[in-house]
Specification:
- The complex is a heterodimer.
- By secondary structure, chain A is mainly alpha-helical.
- Chain A has a single domain, classed as MetI-like (MetI-like fold, Orthogonal Bundle), CATH 1.10.3720.
- In chain A, helix 1 packs across helix 11, helix 3 packs parallel to helix 6 and helix 8 packs antiparallel against helix 11.
- The longest helix of chain A has about 40 residues.
- By secondary structure, chain B is an alpha/beta fold.
- Chain B has one domain: Rossmann fold (3-Layer(aba) Sandwich).
- In chain B, about 30% of the residues lie in helices and about 25% in strands.
- Chain B contains ten helices and ten strands.
- In chain B, the strands form two sheets. Chain B has a six-stranded mixed sheet, with helices on both faces. A four-stranded antiparallel sheet of chain B has the order 2-1-4-5, covered by helices on one side.
- Chain B is globular.
- Chains A and B meet through helix 7 and helix 8 of A and helix 2 and helix 6 of B.
Chain lengths: ~280, ~280
């Protein structure tokens, strides 16, 4: 081997090593978080944790059932409003958003994306909680929906834009009206990507705490009433982690683990959806 | 279709495809009525003229080839024939396109209805990726009248047979069209275009993205299609025009230079530009 060749090989291996190193560095925090949650939280996970609600002070035991169900309800409310609005906005932006209106909507969506979630919570408080006169699950769902819409709109737009124009033309040449082309060909082709985008967005808002502080408020009792304050996993974790009791701390760790697993499950579903699309593509 | 080399082919440029080419019937010998015709058609493409003052007739049950150098307006003309041209922002059309004597640009004519009667196949195969092979063929039917499942299956089979694809796909009608080869995908698109029974079929360089074998298949198919449809094909391959068409129209800089029977055009063209292009001196 000539010296230049040796140099090249050495530099090549160094660079490869560096990329491996940075990749490890990037996943280290995630691995550390997961490991810590499992170490501290897994021990407190038991059947009671999933089926029982919080117990009064002084009693030991109890669980997070009310918070898990609360999170599911609040996120479902947010999805019911946020996903249709977001997806429809995204389709509009991609298919008809060439002009000034499209530019405006895109601009607003980008700004909305960058607003801190606590500000969205304050906004939901003044628009929903104050007129209604009390905290409620609906207000929490509203706040999360406001976060959901711009994320979903922009990812949907990206996905719809990825559909080649030749497919639109093929449908129009077959005598499809414009709206049927959008719905039956463009939307169907982009569906897997849109579903993935929605799941990622839902996973993100499921872990939001700040917007729920002034809206859903939290609740120590099991409640499914939409117009009353409702518990949520992030809120319950926050409350128990702040509290002075070891039992609370243990349960907060377990709650954090459950929350992470919930988000992880959503991401895995999103991955599976994408893989389904790849097989077709 | 038995492919035999006829003596008259010997003098013409050999096709790049090594396969027997079907003999061409005497072109334009039986003057049929024009199914489709343009009258002083001018089409603009974002400020510049794509097609200028073109009047040309496309006869029933014949294949008309539109040839000419890149940018001569042949594709623009084709897209103006089924009102696809206007879908691109900044385009405009003047003049008339007569389908069975009625102007498709006339008042109160719905372009969507026009496109159901004048089908189109594009340069690259465009199967709908989320639909199965059978669903692709039936895609154009869904917009028309409702069909029972049995009727639909029959139409799908007939269309695939007419596109010479049935034997290759009959056992995997529910599979994704993306598993097919490029040539098969293009024949699938032809089946999809044929299924709703249009009157005219427009082919925009249908073999541009295909290999020689796929090209040969499509060219044979074009000969079959003209029995039932009026066919217009844009091609930049002159051998292809010579092989498949009965009438050839030569365009240059957006104008129709010359139109005539393909054999005449390729042996004794009247305009010097046509001769120059056909003999390969420009373009």
């Amino acid at each position: 081997m000539t010296p230049r060749r040796v140099l090249r090989t050495v530099v090549g291996s160094l660079m490869t090593g560096a990329t491996y190193g940075t990749a490890l560095l990037a996943i280290l925090p995630l691995a550390a978080i997961l490991a810590m949650l499992i170490v501290k939280g897994a021990g407190s996970l038991n059947w009671d944790f999933f089926v029982k609600s919080a117990v009064p002070l002084g009693e030991s035991g109890g669980g997070f059932a009310h918070a898990i169900v609360g999170t599911l309800i609040i996120v479902a409310l947010a999805c019911a409003v946020g996903l249709p609005v977001g997806v429809a906005t995204g389709i509009f932006l991609a298919e008809f958003g060439g002009g000034r209106i499209g530019f405006g909507i895109r601009f607003v969506a980008d700004i909305l994306n960058g607003i801190p979630s606590i500000v969205i919570g304050v906004f939901a408080w003044s628009w929903v909680v104050r007129p209604m006169g009390h905290f409620s699950a609906v207000a929490g769902g509203f706040a999360l929906a406001v976060i959901l819409v711009p994320i979903v709109a922009r990812t949907t737009e990206e996905m719809v834009r990825l559909v080649p124009n030749s497919l639109r033309e093929a449908a129009l040449a077959l005598g499809y009206p414009r709206w049927r082309t959008s719905l039956q060909v463009v939307l169907r082709t982009a569906a897997a990507g849109i579903v993935t985008g929605c799941l990622v967005a839902v996973a993100r808002v499921a872990g939001e705490t700040a917007p729920l502080l002034f809206t859903a408020l939290g609740n120590d009792f099991f409640s499914t009433r939409l117009l009353a304050p409702m518990a949520a996993l992030p809120l319950q974790i926050y409350r128990y982690a702040e509290g002075p009791y070891d039992d609370w701390h243990r349960q907060a760790w377990a709650g954090a683990l459950v929350l992470i697993l919930l988000v992880l499950a959503l991401s895995l579903v999103a991955r599976a959806v994408v893989r389904g699309r790849r097989q077709h593509a | 279709m038995a492919g035999v080399s006829t003596p008259e082919r010997a003098g013409r440029p050999r096709p790049s495809v090594t396969r027997p080419v079907p003999p061409k019937p005497a072109p334009a010998a039986a003057p049929a009525t024009p199914r489709l015709a343009t009258e002083a058609l001018t089409a603009w493409y974002g400020g510049s003229t794509g097609v200028r003052n073109v009047s040309v007739a496309f006869r029933e049950n014949t294949v008309t080839a539109l040839i000419g150098p890149s940018g001569c307006g042949k594709s623009t003309l084709l897209r103006a024939l089924n009102r696809m041209h206007e879908l691109v922002p900044g385009t405009r059309v003047e003049g008339q396109v007569l389908l069975d004597g009625h102007d498709i640009y006339g008042d109160g004519i719905n372009p969507v209805q026009v496109r159901r009667r004048i089908g189109m196949v594009f340069q690259r195969p465009t199967p709908f990726p989320t639909m199965s092979i059978a669903q692709n063929v039936a895609a154009g039917l869904a917009v028309g009248r409702r069909l029972s499942a049995d009727d639909r299956d029959a139409v799908v089979e007939r269309a695939l047979r007419r596109a010479a694809l049935w034997d290759e796909v009959k056992d995997r009608l529910r599979d994704s069209p993306l598993d097919l080869s490029g040539g098969q995908q293009q024949r699938l698109c032809i089946a999809r275009t044929v299924a709703p029974e249009p009157e005219v079929i427009l082919l925009d360089e249908p073999t541009a993205s295909l290999d020689p074998a796929g090209t040969a298949h499509i060219e044979e198919l074009v000969q079959e299609l003209k029995r039932e449809f009026t066919v217009v094909i844009v091609t930049h391959n002159m051998q292809q025009a010579a092989r498949v068409s009965d009438t050839t129209a030569f365009f240059y800089l957006g104008e129709l230079i010359e139109v005539g029977a393909t054999t005449t055009m390729f042996t004794t063209p009247t305009k010097p530009q046509t001769e120059a292009y056909i003999t390969g001196r420009f373009g």
